[in-house]
Write a structure and sequence with these properties.
This is Methyltransferase. The chain is an alpha/beta fold. Helix content is about 40%, strand content about 20%. Helix 7 links the parallel strand 4 and strand 5.
């Protein structure tokens, strides 16, 4: 991750520090011009695997990318939605970059970029598909039921909310300790500094998320993203959560 962060075209250490001491919204406004050259962007293998899975589930009419950032997920929607796609994010800077880099092919679905908080989506039930990539760490666990209820409210009956979720790091592994150290550092930072910057890697637990989605009115199915491989015990490295609005 550090190699990607400090690549020649990526953000400098100073820029990352300034971002980390800002609010989430202001931090991403600052990072937006270089965001696509950081390790925070959804990896291409994940995007490609999700695209393949959605092609098997679709096609879809209209799609929504929740917390779209600079539009990595919009690229997925563009391949599986026939009519329109919408990206929503509360960072004006991220939306500006996404809008500037969006393709303008004549056969592409209509594309809209909307500045709004995902906890108060400004839409009716007009979408057939909602996706999200890598944004859930910006929400406290207590906020998730409201977030899921918002996504449920903007989907048509039978609409799907789809997102990848990576298998948790094995306790005691290097990855486990690095995530624990990051989350601990963020909690200390938020206890001592304002405005808060909410970004936690270890709070989005599959069992809890599944129950919250069911309570929000979704039927939940898990699908292994086989292209991303399996761990030594045979479990998938990454699963696709497919939550269908049933009521």
């Amino acid at each position: 991750m550090l190699t990607a962060m400090f690549a020649p075209q990526g953000p400098t250490f100073r820029e990352l520090v300034v971002q980390a001491l800002s609010s989430v919204e202001r931090g991403y406004d600052l990072l937006a011009p270089k965001f696509d050259r950081t390790a925070y962007r959804a990896p291409e293998p994940v995007l490609e695997s999700v695209t393949g899975a959605l092609r098997r589930l679709g096609p879809f009419g209209s799609g929504l990318d929740v917390c779209c950032g600079t539009g990595a997920g919009m690229g997925v929607l563009r391949q599986v939605c026939r009519e329109s796609i919408t990206g929503v994010d509360f960072s004006a800077g991220m939306l500006a970059v996404g809008r500037a880099h969006a393709p303008t092919a004549p056969d592409a679905p209509r594309t809209d970029w909307v500045r709004a908080d995902a906890r108060a989506l400004p839409f009716g039930p007009v979408f057939d598909l909602a996706v999200s990539f890598g944004a859930f760490g910006h929400f406290e666990p207590r906020e998730r039921p409201g977030l899921f209820a918002q996504v449920h409210s903007v989907l048509r009956p039978g609409g799907r909310f789809v997102f990848p979720i990576v298998a948790p790091a094995r306790p005691g592994s290097r990855h486990y300790w690095s995530l624990l150290a990051f989350d601990t550092a963020m909690r200390v930072r938020n206890a001592l500094w304002r405005p808060r910057f909410v970004m936690y890697y270890r709070t989005f637990r599959l069992a809890e998320v599944r129950e919250e989605l069911i309570r929000a009115g979704f039927e939940v199915e898990l699908r292994a993203l086989e292209e991303l491989g399996r761990r030594a015990d045979g479990s998938p490295r990454c699963r696709l959560v497919v939550a269908t609005r049933t009521r």
